[in-house]
Amino acid sequence: MNPTSNSVSPASFDGERRPTVMKFGGTSVQDTAAFARVAAIARRQSARSPLPPVVVVSAMAGMTDALLEAVRQALEQDTAAALDGLEPHFARYSEVAESLTGGAAYGDFVHALYAARERLAQALETMRAYPGTIPPLRDEVVAYGEQLAATLLAAVIAGDGTACRAVDARTCIVTDEVYGRARPRWEATVARTRQALGPVLSAGVIPVLGGFIGATLDGATTTLGRGGSDYSATLIGAALQADEVQIWTDVAGIYSADPRLVARSRRLETLAYGEATDLALYGAKVLHPRTIEPVERLKIPVSIRNSYDPDAGYSMITSVSGAPPGSILAVTHRPGIAAVHVRPAGGWLAASALEEMARILHAHGVLVEHLAASRLGLTATVEQGDAIEAARRDLASVGDVHLAADRALLCVVGNFGEDVITLHPSLSEALAAFQVTPLLPHPSAHARLFLMAETDAPPAVQALHARLVEPADTL
Length: 475
Ligand code: ASP
Ligand code: MG
Description:
- By secondary structure, the chain is of the alpha/beta class.
- It has helices spanning 32-48, 63-76, 79-100, 103-129, 134-142, 144-158, 186-202, 229-240, 273-281, 293-296, 353-363, 386-395, 425-430, 457-469, and strands at 20-24, 54-57, 164-166, 206-210, 213-215, 221-223, 244-249, 270-272, 302-306, 315-318, 328-343, 368-374, 377-383, 400-414, 436-438, 447-453.
- The protein has 2 domains: 20-318, Carbamate kinase, CATH 3.40.1160.10; 328-473, VC0802-like (2-Layer Sandwich).
- The strands form 3 sheets. It has an 8-stranded mixed β-sheet, with helices on both faces.
- Keywords: Amino-acid biosynthesis, ATP-binding, Kinase, Nucleotide-binding, Transferase.
């Protein structure tokens, strides 16, 4: 996808006006009180701007996991058990509808829920009978979490007479056919999003869409990968040339370290697109790593806000770095990493070893974070899990395989200048007490990446934060 493509008009949907996109995550809509808060936030935004906002909503917290579990149960046991497991979650949606909607809107939601149950039962049965249908039907099943949330939130917002209605996200976001982690087709998405949402916005109505879901050109339901609602929001924002994409969650921004780990961590008031992406890639859970991709070139700002405390402040992500030259912005870590080392079984590695290793890892769907090669061996840093275990057997054809499990990636984000080879001495000093391997070249001018034992990573984050972030010194 390419948001800068010349064939796409850079103007907004009607050539002048720019809406705000507001995305609410699963914890922001986890119960009745949360829905009420979100409705108030959306109405407030609508009342103070000339154009209504576009609202993008996740499934209620826990619903996506429950739907995936239902698929697993249907395939391994039976459909009835799978559907039973979903009932407590349907009850949570119903409770919200009962408390916050009334009249025809309540009746419509009860009907939507009834139709969802019917269709889910059918889809789960079909998957059992015809395994070939599993990938597309799994996406169709999982999409119900967001679809029901969008229908419900639209009814709740409209409850006080605010003009608002649900729009099926599948009429906006067009993707490829890679079920479970579909990639958007940019130009089709722009065209359809403008077509579907432009008239709604022009009529002064708030559109509410489910995040995370899209459709192929043929109309089959797809999903964008776990946590993908953030990505939906920026895709919609880019397509409409939004003035801002607001990601509403349960924390008021991105912090200099995980606040549960570092009590003195502070909110980053501003950070650059690349800085936010690196933090998302290497451990900060607030943002899906692809979120920034659609909006960066268009310079649409993205803010991270707290739906539980809307006036608490926020982080603003733009093209301006949050770190003065030489300063450290944030420290994060990502556990669950393994390092696979392949040594020559005798003599040298074959000239084709690197290519062969990359091919095997790719074939097993192993995402490589870092790859280092020398004549004496190859080391790939990857996500731990079944995929790498399976790839390990095939890698024996390349050389002797050694797998170091339970590692973590430690990421330091700051303003280091253009040099991606040198490790700055103050970082080495702050990390002297830990066994760390710097992964060179550094991923970018603003990120430094280290591999270390998983158990060492939390104290290393604390040590780095105390020495390099809290004093706000420069390197
Ligand atoms: N509901 C989806 C998930 O749990 C997408 C999202 O919340 O962003 O992964
Ligand atoms: Mg999320």
